[in-house]
Design a protein that fits this description.
The longest helix has 17 residues. About 8% of the residues have low confidence. The protein contains eleven helices and eleven strands. The strands form two sheets. The protein has a seven-stranded parallel β-sheet with strand order 7-6-5-10-8-11-9, sandwiched between helices. A four-stranded mixed β-sheet has the order 1-4-2-3. It folds into two domains: 100 residues, 2-Layer Sandwich (60s Ribosomal Protein L30, Chain: A); 164 residues, SPOUT methyltransferase, trefoil knot domain (Alpha/beta knot, 3-Layer(aba) Sandwich), CATH 3.40.1280.10. The protein is an alpha/beta fold. This is 23S rRNA (Guanosine2251-2'-O)-methyltransferase. Belongs to the class IV-like SAM-binding methyltransferase superfamily. RNA methyltransferase TrmH family. GO terms for molecular function: RNA binding; RNA methyltransferase activity.
C-alpha cells in the first residue's frame, strides 16, 4: 500500500529474512542424522535407575550395608519388585514383627530387612531396626503393597526379613547336639506333615520341652518355609531341623544307634503318659492329621502310643499332638 514504506517496521531489514537465502549448507541433512541408540537407563544421569545403580555400587563398596550400626532410621531405598512369595528351596521371607525380632535376636544370617513406609513404630519395630543395625543387615523401606506382593499377602505387620535358604542338619548332627548337652537324645520326627504351620508348631514345642531337633523327610512333607519360620516364632533359629531322603531308613539307623522309636497313633497300645522309656534316648514320630503314620513307618516303630482324647473327637493336628507328647516326656524326665 502506498505510503507504508515510510512507516517504521514496514520493511524487512537486510539479513533478517527467515530460511536459507541460497542454500542450507548441509545443515538440514546433518539435522536428520540420529545420535545413536538410546543408552540403558542405568547410564542416564537423571534417570531413577541410574541413581539406584549408583547407590547399590556405593553399598557394595562399603561392605554391603545401607545403614550404619547406630542408626535406627531405614534408608529411603525401595525393595525390588517381586512377583510372588518365597518358593521351596529358594530364599525365604520371615514376616511379622514377633517372628522378625526373634530371628534377629537369634542372629539368623539375614540379607535384608524390609520396612513398610509410614509404619506405626512400637517396641518391636524399634528393636528390629536396632538389631539390624548392630548386625549390619541392610534396611530397605518400601510401600506396603510392595511388601504384600513379596509375601503373597501374608500378614507381615510392616516388617519382612529376607533370609538365605535353610541349611538342614543331619540326624547325626542332632545326636551330637544331644551328646554335648549331657542329656539323653530326644528327637521329633514328622511323617507326612504338609502344613508349614504344623511344622513350625512342632519345632516351637520341641524347643520349649528340651528336644534336640526335628526330622522331616524330603518327599510328601513340608520343609522349613517362611510359613514354618513364622509359626515357630523364631524357635527354628535355635533348634536344628534335619532332612532325610527316607524316613524309614533314618529311623532304623537311629535304632541301630540305641535310640528308641515311639510312634503316636490313636490306636496305640500304651498311653503317652505311661511311656516307660521316656528317660531313654527317644524319637517321637508324629503322623499327619488325616492319615496318621504311614504303614512302613508304623511297622518300624518299637512302640505305638496314644494320646487319650474324647471319643467324639476324631484326632489332633500334628503340632498339638507333638506338644502333648513332648510335655509328657519332659514331665517324666524331670520326675
Amino acid at each position: 500500500m502506498a505510503g507504508n514504506d515510510k512507516r517504521h517496521g514496514a520493511r524487512r531489514k537486510e539479513g533478517t529474512k527467515k530460511g536459507p537465502t541460497v542454500g542450507s549448507g548441509g545443515q538440514r541433512r546433518r539435522a536428520l542424522q540420529g545420535k545413536g541408540p538410546t543408552p540403558p537407563a542405568e547410564e542416564r544421569k537423571a534417570h531413577p535407575a541410574a541413581r539406584r545403580a549408583a547407590s547399590a555400587a556405593k553399598r557394595a563398596a562399603s561392605g554391603g550395608s545401607s545403614q550404619g550400626a547406630g542408626s535406627s532410621r531405614p534408608s529411603g531405598s525401595r525393595p525390588p519388585a517381586r512377583r510372588g512369595g518365597p518358593k521351596g528351596e529358594g530364599t525365604e521371607l520371615v514376616a511379622g514383627r514377633n517372628s522378625v525380632v526373634e530371628a534377629l535376636r537369634a542372629r539368623v544370617p539375614a540379607t535384608t530387612l524390609y520396612v513398610a513406609e509410614r509404619i506405626e513404630s512400637d517396641d518391636r519395630v524399634k528393636e528390629a531396626l536396632k538389631l539390624a543395625g548392630d548386625l549390619h543387615i541392610p534396611v530397605l523401606e518400601g510401600p506396603r503393597p510392595e511388601l504384600d506382593r513379596m509375601t503373597d499377602g501374608t500378614l507381615h505387620q510392616g516388617l519382612v526379613l529376607q533370609v538365605p535358604p535353610y541349611r538342614y542338619a543331619t540326624p547325626q548332627d542332632l545326636l551330637e547336639r544331644a551328646h554335648d548337652s549331657g542329656r539323653p537324645p530326644l528327637l521329633v520326627a514328622l511323617d507326612g506333615v504338609t502344613d508349614p504351620r504344623n511344622l513350625g508348631a512342632a519345632v516351637r514345642s520341641a524347643a520349649a520341652f528340651g528336644a534336640h531337633g526335628v526330622i522331616v523327610p524330603e518327599r510328601r512333607s513340608v520343609g522349613m518355609t517362611a510359613g514354618a519360620w513364622k509359626a515357630s516364632a523364631g524357635a527354628a533359629a535355635r533348634l536344628p531341623v534335619a532332612r532325610v531322603t527316607n524316613l524309614t531308613r533314618a529311623l532304623r539307623e537311629l535304632q541301630n544307634g540305641g535310640v528308641f522309636v515311639a510312634g503316636l497313633d490313636g490306636e496305640g497300645s500304651v498311653e503317652v503318659g505311661e511311656l516307660e522309656v521316656a528317660s531313654d534316648p527317644l524319637v517321637l514320630v508324629v503322623g499327619s492329621e488325616g492319615k496318621g503314620l504311614s504303614r512302613l513307618v508304623r511297622d518300624t516303630c518299637d512302640l505305638v502310643v496314644r494320646i487319650p482324647i474324647a471319643h467324639d473327637t476324631e484326632s489332633l493336628n500334628a503340632g498339638i499332638a507333638a506338644s502333648i507328647a513332648l510335655y509328657e516326656v519332659a514331665r517324666r524326665r524331670a520326675a
